[in-house]
């Protein structure tokens, strides 16, 4: 059976209906909505022509769909964070970013090299799987902004804050590591390009992204909440499309200036959030972004499920399985746990934070973005990354509800 153009409307309608029902239906059970959508996609794959829906067949579509989904998610997590940015307030975040993330990538690259992968290929696998996903980790992240007159930001749930802020920042900071792998594969000896990578890919583009996000977010925040011309005060007219406009505009500006757009979008959301922090318009913006994000996420998961059924995992071998299982069950938990030592987090909170290094749509984007430079290994790469994402969806999706409830009970007692 093949699905034609009209049939796709039917599939889309059913998917949206499931998206409205499943989160409520599964709320009490240890089965997350991403698992259900992935499973639905795998079932749908049996009625779609084999191999027709695949990141290998549609690399640009995969790249842009994943890119847009991550962008919307980054705006959402930025708007959801109540805590003002600061070195001490975000101490756990900085440890996860600057200690756990590089250590995890290095460990993955080392494991890949021991398994017989070329150094650049092993580094790419580690870099692509580096970011904690802001899309699929919603069950363990901050649920939304605390707003309203007299509202006090909730700062006691360090686990949700740590995972939310980490996911918001490391999607942008994974870019230099991806470029490091690409340079290693295409530019020859390390001495020929090391200075360029450090000065431009690591520092220059990051600074541009941060500056663009901070300035744009601050200006748009002033316009939305305190513009002298009433027509520009979008908070008064309740125009949630501001969030979408800012996401696309800030990303586009940062990319035009050759900065990291993912980083710019998250920083812009934090800057906008800092303007009139308790204003309930933030909640409306977040709710709007969340709905768009859900629709895009359902689509990505359905397509991933279809691709899995259609043979995406066929090239998977023991190396790919060891890398995926090793990352999810050993390397990410161990490196993150070590990075969180001597913090104010309780031992159980450190373990839960370390365990939930969710891999997802961000990894799909990075592989689609950089995969053309590793054409000979691309089928194996997609099989390995696809397997790791599926494993993460299942393991973290099943564990999220009981573990977060356990932490809540311990806090209450």
UniProtKB/TrEMBL annotation:
Which lineage do the record's taxonomy fields give for this organism? Bacteria, Bacillati, Actinomycetota, Actinomycetes, Propionibacteriales
PANTHER family in the record: CNH1P, NA(+)/H(+) ANTIPORTER 1
Signal peptide positions on this chain: none
Q: Which Pfam families match?
A: Na_H_Exchanger (PF00999)
Kindly state which keywords UniProt assigns to this record, in alphabetical order.
Antiport, Cell membrane, Ion transport, Membrane, Transmembrane, Transmembrane helix, Transport
- Name of the featured protein: Cation:proton antiporter
Task: Report membrane topology.
Answer: Multi-pass membrane protein
Under the heading InterPro entries, the entry gives:
Cation/H_exchanger_TM (IPR006153), Na+/solute_symporter_sf (IPR038770)
Task: Tell me which species this is from.
Answer: Kribbella lupini
TM segment ranges: 6-22, 29-48, 68-85, 97-130, 173-190, 202-221, 241-274, 295-314, 320-339, 351-369, 381-404
List locations, semicolon-separated. Cell membrane
């Amino acid at each position: 059976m093949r699905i034609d153009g009209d049939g796709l409307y039917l599939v889309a309608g059913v998917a949206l209906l499931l998206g409205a029902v499943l989160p409520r239906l599964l709320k009490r059970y240890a089965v997350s909505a991403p698992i259900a959508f992935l499973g639905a996609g795998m079932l749908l794959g049996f009625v779609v022509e084999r191999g027709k829906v695949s990141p290998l067949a549609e690399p640009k579509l995969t790249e842009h769909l994943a890119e847009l989904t991550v962008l919307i998610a980054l705006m959402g997590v930025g708007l959801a964070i109540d805590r003002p940015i600061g070195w001490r307030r975000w101490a756990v975040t900085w440890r996860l970013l600057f200690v756990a993330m590089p250590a995890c990538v290095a460990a993955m690259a080392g494991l890949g090299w021991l398994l017989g992968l070329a150094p650049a290929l092993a580094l790419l696998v580690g870099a692509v799987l580096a970011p904690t996903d802001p899309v699929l980790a919603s069950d363990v992240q901050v649920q939304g902004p605390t707003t309203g007159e007299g509202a006090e930001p909730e700062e006691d749930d360090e686990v949700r804050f740590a995972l939310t802020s980490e996911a918001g920042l490391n999607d942008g900071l994974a870019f230099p590591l991806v470029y490091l792998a690409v340079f290693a594969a295409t530019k020859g000896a390390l001495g020929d390009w090391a200075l360029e990578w450090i000065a431009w890919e690591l520092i220059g583009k990051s600074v541009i992204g941060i500056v663009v996000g901070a300035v744009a977010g601050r200006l748009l925040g002033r316009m939305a909440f305190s513009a002298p011309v009433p027509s520009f005060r979008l908070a008064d007219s309740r125009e949630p499309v501001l969030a979408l406009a800012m996401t696309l505009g800030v990303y586009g500006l940062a990319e035009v200036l050759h900065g990291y757009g993912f980083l710019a979008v998250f920083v812009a959301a934090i800057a906008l959030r800092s303007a009139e922090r308790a204003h309930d318009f933030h909640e409306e913006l977040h709710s709007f972004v969340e709905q768009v994000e859900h629709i895009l996420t359902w689509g990505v998961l359905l397509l991933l499920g279809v691709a899995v059924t259609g043979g995406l995992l066929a090239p998977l071998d023991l190396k790919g399985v060891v890398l995926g299982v090793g990352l999810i069950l050993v390397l990410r938990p161990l490196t993150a746990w070590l990075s969180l030592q001597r913090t104010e987090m309780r031992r159980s909170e450190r373990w839960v934070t370390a365990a939930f290094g969710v891999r997802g749509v961000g990894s799909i984007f990075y592989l689609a973005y950089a995969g053309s430079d590793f054409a000979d290994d691309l089928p194996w790469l997609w099989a390995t990354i696809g397997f790791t994402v599926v494993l993460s969806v299942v393991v973290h999706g099943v564990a999220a509800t009981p573990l977060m409830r356990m932490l809540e009970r311990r806090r209450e007692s």
